[in-house]
Design brief:
heterodimer, A: 376 residues, mainly alpha, 3-stranded antiparallel beta sheet, two-stranded antiparallel sheet, 5 strands, 75% helix, flat, B: 326 residues, alpha/beta, 6-stranded mixed beta sheet, 5-stranded antiparallel beta sheet, 10 helices, 15 strands, elongated
């Protein structure tokens, strides 16, 4: 315990000495202030602590859309852009030197010569290196929680789920960073390859999303074509096969044949896409699920409605008969979007977090193996 | 006083070997014994394997083969390191820590209690003359200051055995003297000090026993008296040529010094056999300029160890490759 405490205090001092830690914290505070500056009153929405006011009937104090908007800004912008992108890049830049510095000649000798096993030393150092992100996100979430409660009256404890999720997401990348750092002893190489890994996972995710969207669109087209064909067949069956009806029947037969052709084309496209999808999914299986891990937060936060931030901003929201908020978009778009969301949300926690943790353990295992076996 | 183990060696190494990748045979079967309560010096030319040997004892380098004990436990036994102090060569402390924080951190890593850490930090900073710099960042320290703090760091866990790799590197003469005094005090307290240094004169002043490593092997090992016993002799410097009876005496070697002096050399450490020679020289009226007992110093010993007797040239620096001597 004495050793763990010493390493914990040392990790804090190390973070404290890094200017970037304070820069990130300062930017986080500014983002939080920006978030807190947005408020609602009886007539609409105000920005910058009331300096700029916009009248709005739907987005006003106490309205469900106002709460939804405030929550969406957190999950879409603050988590999606600041915490999961910008802050993580800054954290990687700041922490990428931790392990190469730790194993540098003259520094590592001093700790290896203490009564602590190499394995324990490695994993303790790794876990404490995650403090950078853990502290940043924790401080940030407390701020956001207070802002949301103050501005909308909603004390949403789910916000704190961002702490483990963002830390987990960061740890996938950092495990790879540590592996490269321990292997090559070069902080720069570790950083560049980690960014490459991250952009690769982003590329794979985008490729999968594109194929999913095409598949969903094609599947909907196929279903439409089959429905239309069935409707035309029913109509055709209702019309007697007489000379007078011959023209109408021919028209319907033409429509049926057109729809059958469209359905066949859709089927063919789906069949063509299937092997690509399998390949991408196979590759994706071994990569960390960075986007989807952060996406879990959005999944949990907006579970009560499928209204998105863009729906609210474009005033594309309405209420159904039960009084629930729904996006006022055409049915086809909503179907496509909800099916795409369904596709991703059907993925289990095991798939999203479990397979990513396997990646992380493999990276840490390799790094630990090198660390333990190496002569310094 | 540090409690001593019953008759066991502080360090007792047998057949320690290290083959690095690339077939560099850094250590080729080291046998070495260090008695408790002594200052032991390890010397050798660059690349002889001195630091590798120290690092193996401190588990920084994994041996290819090693048996033996350190403080009675097998080499590599981690808990034993809690009773060992270590100052590596070219050590690098975290730049964001102060001197006091460095001592506290590394002592905590050696499982020293908080109360003890506080007490010893103040005490040891005072011993190495760094009290005034205790709360200043390491990044502002000079090389000599770093060595002083490094030495204090090695003593924080109240060690029974202290391994110091070039402890006076970069330290000014006054600092060296102070460090030497600390080492002597440690020895007087019953601790064992294992010193790895290039400064032969420093070692000679404090070490009771030494080992000389050459190309990964122990070329010489023992007390300075034992190692230099063969070289002990008496030298008498006289004016003029040696008398005839000296030339006929096989126990007395003579060699001219300059144009009008001669040096008479008698092997042996005992002064008895010299007396009749002196008496006869005086009765002959020969002027004796000086008479002194002489023995090899550590530098002579070192040079003898690193010189190939067949060629008379020094062995090439570095470790042996592919298991053979170069």
């Amino acid at each position: 315990m004495t050793q763990f405490k010493a390493m914990l205090i040392d990790a804090y001092r190390e973070l404290n000495s890094r200017k970037l830690f304070w820069v990130v914290l300062a930017i986080s505070t500014m983002v939080m202030l920006g978030y807190a500056s947005m408020g609602f009153d009886e007539t609409g929405i105000s920005y910058f602590f009331g300096i700029w006011h916009v009248d709005n009937d739907q987005i006003r104090e106490g309205s469900p859309i106002a709460r939804m908007l405030y929550r969406s800004i957190f999950s879409t912008f603050i988590v999606g852009i600041w915490l999961a992108w910008a802050a993580v890049i800054l954290a990687l830049i700041s922490t990428t030197t931790i392990f190469p510095d730790f194993i540098a000649g003259g520094a590592i000798d001093l700790v290896l010569s203490k009564p602590i096993s190499r394995l324990r030393l490695f994993f303790t150092k790794y876990l404490l290196s995650l403090l950078f992100v853990l502290l940043q996100v924790a401080i940030f979430c407390i701020g956001v929680f207070l802002c949301m409660g103050w501005r909308t009256g909603e004390w949403n404890w789910l916000i704190f789920a961002a702490i483990p999720l963002i830390t987990l997401f960061y740890s996938y990348l950092y495990s790879f960073n540590v592996f490269i750092g321990v292997w090559t002893r070069s902080a720069l190489t570790a950083l560049l390859l980690t960014l490459l890994l991250w952009f690769s996972t982003f590329g794979i995710n985008m490729a999968e999303l594109t194929i999913v969207q095409i598949q969903v669109g094609t599947q909907l087209s196929l279903e439409d074509a089959v429905d239309d064909r069935d409707r035309f067949v029913a109509s055709l069956n209702r019309i007697e096969d007489t000379e007078d009806n011959a023209r109408e029947r021919a028209g319907l037969q033409g429509q049926i044949s057109h729809k059958e052709q469209a359905a066949a084309e859709s089927k063919e496209l789906l069949e063509d896409l299937d092997p690509w999808m399998k390949r991408i999914q196979a590759v994706k299986y071994v990569f960390p699920k960075t986007g989807e891990t952060v996406g879990l937060l959005e999944r949990w936060l907006k579970r009560d409605t499928d209204v998105s931030f863009s729906d609210i901003m474009s005033n594309n929201v309405t209420m159904n008969e039960e009084g629930d908020l729904i996006p006022a978009r055409n049915t086809r778009d909503r179907q496509a979007e909800s099916r795409t969301i369904e596709f991703y949300e059907s993925r289990s926690m095991w798939y999203v977090i479990g397979t990513s943790l396997i990646f992380e353990f493999v990276m840490l295992g390799l790094a630990a193996f090198i660390f333990v076996r190496r002569d310094y | 006083m540090v409690k001593q183990s019953n008759g066991q060696m502080a360090i007792d190494l047998h057949n320690v070997q290290k083959m690095y990748r690339g077939k560099v045979h850094a250590l080729r079967g080291i046998d070495m014994q260090v008695h408790p309560g002594e200052i032991f010096g390890l010397l050798g030319p660059n690349g002889a394997g001195k630091s590798t040997l120290v690092k193996i004892m401190m588990t920084v380098v994994r041996p290819t083969q090693a048996s033996g004990t350190m403080l009675g436990r097998p080499v590599g036994h981690k808990p034993t390191l809690g009773r060992v102090g270590y100052l590596p060569e070219h050590h690098r402390f975290p730049q964001y820590l102060t001197g006091a924080q460095v001592l506290d951190f590394y002592a905590a890593m050696a499982n020293v209690s908080r109360t003890e850490r506080r007490r010893r930090t103040a005490e040891l900073l005072d011993v190495v003359g760094m009290s005034e710099w205790a709360n200043k960042k390491i990044s502002s320290y000079s090389k000599g200051m770093l060595q002083r703090v490094g030495l204090a760091q090695a003593l924080m866990n109240d060690p029974q055995l202290v391994l110091l790799d070039e402890p006076t590197d970069g330290v000014d003469p006054v600092g060296r003297r102070e460090i030497r005094d600390v080492l002597v005090r440690l020895r007087d307290e019953g601790r064992t000090v294992f010193l790895n240094s290039h400064l032969l004169s420093e070692l000679e002043l404090v070490c009771s026993r030494v080992a000389i490593l050459v190309q990964g092997e122990v070329a010489m090992q023992g007390s300075l008296d034992d190692l230099t016993s063969e070289s002990r002799r008496y030298e008498i410097l006289i004016l003029g040529s040696p008398p005839g009876w000296v030339k006929e005496n096989a126990d007395v070697r003579h060699e001219p010094v300059g144009v009008d002096r001669t040096r008479l050399v008698m092997q042996g450490a005992e002064p008895g056999p010299v007396q009749p020679i002196v008496d006869r020289l005086r009765s002959d009226g020969t002027t004796i300029v000086s008479l002194q007992p002489v023995r090899e110093n550590l530098e002579d010993l070192f040079l003898r160890a690193v010189t190939d007797p067949s060629t008379g040239k020094a062995y090439k620096p570095g470790a042996a490759r592919n298991g053979g001597a170069s």
